[in-house]
């Protein structure tokens, strides 16, 4: 029925920096490829945590994703470049884990809004906010990586060449690079052993194996004071042909695996056909703080929202949602949870009126000139359904690959 929404939502899941810079590049790619992210695990470090996840194995091999790659040349180029990166290819071979068989990638940010408000943006930033936050990255993949041989395999990969022979040969033909520099690059390992030697000592707690990860092995831009203060732990657990990695503080990693063990003892995990979803808690007072900060101005994102929604914006408790693929379309279901019915009613009214105005403007443009190609097709706008239900506002959005980012479609790269 029009206006009715079938909602698939679960509440809960530090960025892909777990396996050094390779994983950091992947995090950028995932965020770029999926403008919605999904929640599958049920663990949170605190009630104010935001959780983001994606199931790569449900997406990467799908016809929909292949159509996205064909439609958007830049995404296709970026995806191919990353997946063919020799560092990543070698890492997968060494570990015996394939990215396209990864069943979950989750990113959990504890005390989300306060962390975002105080997050350091430069070398002189508030790194205490980073130390205080619970940033946890979860990767779950098919295939067993034995904790007993993990360091040996990682050491073999990290000791490999930072540059391929073909790269070195190309550099030698470039007169702008000094020969001594090229000789040094030819023998440079991916990661210096002194930066990850601590990982050789593991600790077994129950079925979980813990490794200490030095911060400078992940990112050398941090000041020394931060490197000395922040401690990162990598936890591993192998179970029934699946390896689960958790990267974060020792407390958060142990908390995650403890919750995993409890859930496994109570009941088997529920399977969801969502490939992505998210759960972000909001706080009215912190939103007001953000609105009055230098990061926001009357013309910024919070200014118009505050003007349109009024006090209702500050009554939003959580924004969450999930995405799935079927019928050749991506289906995104969003939930805006409010403190009270009146706030939800106000938000729904503004959203419904705004959607109607956009639909009317597109229709007028097409009537004036049928050759006009609007930024958002009318078929896409008409498929958006909004519903007010108690304290919640529900939104259902459907999109063909070409409708995701129409301004970038058919623009091939390079």
**In terms of quaternary structure, what is this?**
single chain
Alpha-beta content class? alpha+beta
| H/E series | HEHHHHEHHEHHHEEHHEEHEHHEEHHEEH
Largest sheet: 12 strands, antiparallel
Which of globular, elongated, flat, extended, rod-shaped describes the shape? globular
In total, the number of strands is: 12
Strand order of the largest sheet: 4-5-6-7-3-2-1-8-9-10-12-11
Mean pLDDT across residues:
79
Q: pLDDT under 50 segments (min length 5)? A: 1-40
Helix content: 40-55%
> What fraction strand?
15-25%
Give a concise summary.
With 414 residues, this protein is an alpha+beta fold. The protein has helices at residues 20-33, 56-59, 63-71, 73-83, 86-95, 112-118, 127-132, 147-158, 165-172, 179-187, 215-218, 224-229, 250-266, 284-291, 302-309, 341-368, 378-382, 401-404, and strands spanning 50-54, 102-109, 135-142, 202-205, 208-213, 232-239, 242-248, 276-281, 316-326, 329-338, 385-389, 392-399.
Structure explained in plain terms:
The protein is α+β, with helices and mostly antiparallel strands and 414 residues long. It has 18 helices and twelve strands. The chain has a twelve-stranded antiparallel beta sheet with strand order 4-5-6-7-3-2-1-8-9-10-12-11. A hairpin with a 2-residue loop joins strand 6 (232-239) and strand 7. Helix 1 runs antiparallel to helix 4. The longest helix is centred in the last third of the chain and has 28 residues, at 341-368. It is globular and about 65 Å long.
């Amino acid at each position: 029925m029009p206006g009715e929404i079938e909602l698939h939502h679960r509440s809960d899941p530090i960025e892909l920096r777990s396996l050094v810079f390779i994983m950091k590049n992947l995090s950028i790619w995932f965020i770029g490829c999926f403008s919605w992210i999904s929640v599958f695990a049920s663990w949170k470090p605190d009630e104010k945590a935001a959780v983001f996840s994606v199931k790569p194995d449900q997406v990467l091999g799908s016809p929909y994703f292949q159509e996205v790659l064909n439609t958007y040349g830049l995404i296709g180029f970026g995806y191919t470049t990353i997946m063919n990166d020799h560092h990543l290819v070698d890492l997968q071979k060494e570990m015996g884990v394939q990215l396209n068989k990864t069943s979950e990638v989750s990113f959990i940010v504890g005390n989300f809004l306060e962390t975002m408000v105080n997050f350091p943006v430069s070398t002189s930033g508030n790194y205490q906010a980073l130390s205080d936050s619970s940033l946890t990255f979860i990767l779950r993949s098919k295939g067993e990586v034995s904790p007993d041989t993990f360091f040996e395999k990682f050491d073999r990969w990290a000791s490999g060449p930072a540059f391929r022979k073909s790269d070195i040969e190309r550099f030698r033909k470039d007169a702008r690079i000094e020969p001594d520099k090229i000789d040094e690059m030819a023998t440079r390992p991916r990661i210096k052993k002194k930066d990850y030697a601590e990982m050789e000592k593991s600790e077994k707690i129950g079925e979980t194996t813990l490794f200490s990860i030095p911060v400078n092995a992940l990112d050398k831009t941090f000041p020394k004071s931060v490197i000395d203060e922040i401690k990162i732990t990598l936890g591993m657990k192998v179970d029934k042909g699946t390896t689960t990695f958790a990267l974060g503080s020792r407390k958060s990693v142990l908390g995650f695996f403890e919750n995993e063990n409890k859930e496994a003892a109570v009941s088997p995990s529920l399977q969801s056909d969502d490939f992505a979803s998210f759960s972000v808690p909001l706080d009215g007072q912190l939103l007001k703080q953000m609105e009055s900060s230098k990061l926001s101005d009357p013309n910024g994102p919070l200014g118009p929202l505050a003007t349109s929604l009024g006090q209702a914006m500050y009554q939003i408790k959580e924004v969450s949602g999930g995405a799935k693929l079927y019928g050749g379309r991506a289906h995104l279901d969003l939930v805006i949870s409010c403190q009270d019915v009146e706030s939800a009613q106000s938000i729904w009214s503004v959203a419904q009126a705004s959607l109607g105005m956009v639909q009317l403007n597109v229709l007028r443009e097409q009537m004036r000139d049928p050759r006009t190609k609007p930024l958002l097709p009318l078929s896409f706008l008409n498929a958006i359904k909004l519903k007010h239900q108690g304290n919640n506002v529900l939104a259902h959005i459907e999109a063909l690959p070409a409708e995701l980012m129409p301004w970038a479609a058919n623009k091939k790269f390079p």
